[in-house]
Design a protein that fits this description.
Length: 152
């Protein structure tokens, strides 16, 4: 059962890693930020369109490992339609999920497909791959135009 679950999780990550959703630079965006994870070589630019305090659109481009691309892909799906505060709160939960034993008591329903990343907590280097998109999203929301690095 656990192995089946692992396989399913891996399928989701491989699927989104190979064919990321919301990939490519949009014609317009109100905010953007660049993220860099030098330990793995993951780089991305995230584009957000924020309207009336909500994330109306989220897209990204970049290259990196399957985990970093899948995480960015799933993140852009889940933050659409959310307020900036809701998006930040999701990151806090996601961060607990991937860094705390037993997921830090996080409600799996709320994180939906993001729970596929729970397994990375066993691999600290991979945590940086999984959270890069989220750090970049936070930087974009804060209007920081400089590149953020997981090693700063
Ligand atoms: Zn990576």
């Amino acid at each position: 059962m656990l192995d089946d679950l692992r396989e399913l999780y891996q399928e989701v990550i491989l699927d989104h890693g190979k064919q990321p959703r919301n990939f490519g630079q949009p014609a317009e965006a109100t905010r953007s930020a660049r993220g860099n994870n030098p330990l793995c070589g993951d780089r991305m630019t995230l584009y957000l369109t924020v309207e009336d305090g909500r994330v109306a659109d989220a897209r990204f481009e970049g290259k990196g490992c399957a985990i970093s691309m899948a995480s960015a892909s799933l993140m852009t799906e889940i933050i659409k339609g959310r307020t900036a505060a809701e998006a930040r709160a999701l990151f806090e939960r996601f961060h607990r999920l991937v860094t705390t034993d037993a997921g830090g008591g996080v409600d799996a329903d709320e994180l939906d497909k993001l729970t596929v990343f729970a397994g990375v907590r066993e691999f600290p280097v991979r945590v940086k791959c999984a959270t890069l998109a989220w750090h970049t999203m936070t930087a974009a929301l804060e209007g920081r135009n400089d590149e953020i690095s997981t090693e700063d």
